[in-house]
Amino acid sequence: MGTVFQRMLEHKLVAILRGQQEEDIVNIAQSLHDGGVHMMEITVDTPRFDEHIRQVKEAFGERMIVGAGTVLDPETARTAILAGAQFIFSPTVDKETITMAKRYGVVSIPGAMTPTEILTAYEQGADMIKVFPAGAMGPGYIKDVHGPLPHIPLMPTGGVDLSNVREYFDKGAVAAGLGSSLVPSNKTMDETALRELTETARQFSEAIKDVERV
Predict the structure, then answer these.
(1) Residue 102 clears pLDDT 90, i.e. is over it
(2) CA 147 – CA 191 distance, rounded (Å)
(3) Does residue 106 lie within any of the structural domains?
(4) Cis peptide bond N-terminal to 184, omega within 30
(5) Is residue 214 in some structural domain?
(6) Do the beta carbons of residue 155 and residue 132 sit within 8 Å?
(7) What is the CATH number of the domain that holds 146?
(8) Can you state the angle between helices 25-34 and 191-207, rounded to 10 degrees?
(9) Per the structure, how many domains does the chain have?
(10) Which among 80, 112, 167, 177 could disulfide-bond with 85, CB atoms 3.0 to 4.6 Å apart, if both were Cys?
């Protein structure tokens, strides 16, 4: 887990796949990788999400860190982990889900918003906290939380885009989750769309290229 966690701190950007066509997922992973984004989350509301996690891991090995998102319970977390998920994203704090991830040595990233929720999740064993929905409060909120809780790794997700991603890091984030601002939902990913995705990924990577490593 430590190795994956350290790599997550190094790569910083997690692409969130939600609503993509099943047949496009491996191609999307390739486009992200070509653009410099080496982490991706496949949400568990994607049909056969576990199979897609397995496919991406088989295709990319250690070149791509793959996890599961929108995980609400430990049973779903276990299914994802057995398929090869290296981290578990949740929109909320569920102690049993955190415990399941820790049992298998997988990075746990629950979603929280208030300082109390953030501290509670961390004390329950979370490795990093997904501050969600970050867009509701903006980058300044990360600074406000980071001040009294500097020991807790924060990962803003929801509302992070090219116009503000660097500011989130400047305010204290150690990573960021990128949804439709990077990977469009419900869009046919033909060759043109995949090239556009690679370019967008490259722009995000460029925006944070000189952020100090944690």
Answers:
(1) yes
(2) 45
(3) yes
(4) no
(5) no
(6) no
(7) 3.20.20.70
(8) 40
(9) 1
(10) 80
Task: State the Cα–Cα distance between residues 45 and 68, nearest whole angstrom.
Answer: 10
Spell out the SS3 assignment of the chain. CHHHHHHHHHHCEEEEECCCCHHHHHHHHHHHHHCCCCEEEEECCCCCHHHHHHHHHHHHHHHCEEEEECCCCHHHHHHHHHHCCCEEECCCCCHHHHHHHHHCCCEEECEECCHHHHHHHHHCCCCCEEECCHHHCCHHHHHHHHCCCCCCCEEEECCCCCCCHHHHHHCCCCCEEECCCCCCCCCCCCHHHHHHHHHHHHHHHHHCCCCCCC
Residue 142 lies in a domain: yes
What's residue 2's pLDDT?
Answer: 52
User: Residue 174's domain spans which residues?
Assistant: 2-207
Q: Could you tell me which of 168, 159, 114, 113 has the C-alpha nearest to residue 140? A: 168
Residue 131, in any domain of the structure: yes
Residue keyed to tokens 């568990």: 44
